[in-house]
Amino acid sequence: MNDQQKGPGPVSSGGPNGLQGQNGLQGLGAAVLAYVLWGFFAVYFHALESVPPFELVSWRIVCALPFCIVVVFATGLGPSLRRAVSNPAVLGKLVLSALAVGANWLTYLITIAHHQVLAASLGYYITPLLNVLIGVFILKERLSGLQWAAVGLAGVGIAVLSAGDLSILGMALAMASSFCAYSVIRKFVPVPAVVGLTVETAVLLGPALAVVLHAAGGPSGGGMARPGLVPWLLMASGPVTAIPLLLFTVAARKLDLSILGFAQFITPTILFVLGALLFHEPLDPARTICFVAIWGAIGLFSLDLWRKWKARTG
C-alpha cells in the first residue's frame, strides 16, 4: 500500500498490457492472494451455517470495523481517513461501494447457507467477463486477438453452464453484478485500501448493529450464544473479511480491469472444486464443460501475457 499512502492522485495502471513495472507485479500478487483466500471462504463460512445469513454478514461488518481502525492508525493513515470522510465526492463513492460489497457478502452467504457453493462458483465465473467488458467498452482498455479469443471461449463455457443451471443463474448474476460494481467504483476512489474499507464498514455499521442486537434479543440469543467455536469464528470474521478485500483494492488500483478480471477466475475454480469434491454437490456435464472452457480461456490469456513479456525482455 506504499503508493497509496501518498494520498489522492491518479489511479495507477499497469500500462497497455496491465503488468508493466513494479506496480503491475505488486498488483498481480495482491490479486492472486486475495482470490485464493476468497476461494477458501466457503470452508470457513460453512462452519458458521448455523448463523442466519443476515446476522452473519452483520457480524462480519461489526468485527471488521475495529480491525480496520487499528490498521489505519497503526500505519499512520488517520489524516487520510479524515480527508476521505470530509470530501463529499469521495465519501459518496465509498457509500456506493459499501452498498455493493454488502450486497455481495449477503448473496454469497445465502448461497453457502443453502448449500449452493457451485452457484457461488458460477457467480464468480461471470464476474470477470463483466469486468473485461467494462474495461474494454467503458474504460477503453485494449485486448489483443488472443485475449478476445479467451473472452469468447470463457463466454461459451459460461453460456453452457447457465443453460444447464438456469435455477441458480439469478443468484449468480446478483453476485457477479454486485462485485463488478464494487470493482469499478473502488478502482477510481483515490484513497488507501484500508481507509476505503474503514469508511465502507462504518457506512454499514448502523444496519449491522440493528440486526445483531435483534438476533441477540431473540429466543436463540443470536450467533454468540451458539456452542463450540461459533462465537470465536464470528469474532474472527472481521479480519478474515478485511484482509483479502484490502489486497483486492490494492490490486484494483494497480492493474487494468481486464487483467484483474481474468485473475479472478482463481476464486470460482477453488469454489468449483470445493463444491464438487468437499461438499459433494452434483457435477453434471454442463458444469464440466464450463470448467474446461474457462481454464482454456485462462490458458490463452496467460499465453498472450507471456508472449508480450518475452517481447519486452528480449
Describe the structure.
The chain has 314 residues and is an all-alpha fold. The protein has one domain. It is 76% helix and 0% strand. The longest helix has 29 residues. The radius of gyration is 20 Å and the shape is globular. The N terminus is likely disordered.
Alpha carbon gap, first and last residue? 31 Å
Give the SSE string. Answer: HHHHHHHHHHHHH
Q: What number is the mean pLDDT? A: 84
Computed CA radius of gyration, to the nearest angstrom: 20 Å
Low-confidence stretches: 1-18
Strand content: under 5%
List the helices and strands and how they pair.
Layout: H1 21-39, H2 41-46, H3 53-74, H4 78-86, H5 88-113, H6 117-137, H7 145-164, H8 169-187, H9 193-216, H10 230-254, H11 257-263, H12 266-278, H13 285-313
Helix pairs in contact: 1-10, 1-12, 3-5, 3-9, 3-10, 4-9, 5-8, 5-9, 6-7, 6-8, 6-11, 6-12, 7-13
What attributes characterize this protein structure?
disordered N terminus; mainly alpha; 314 residues
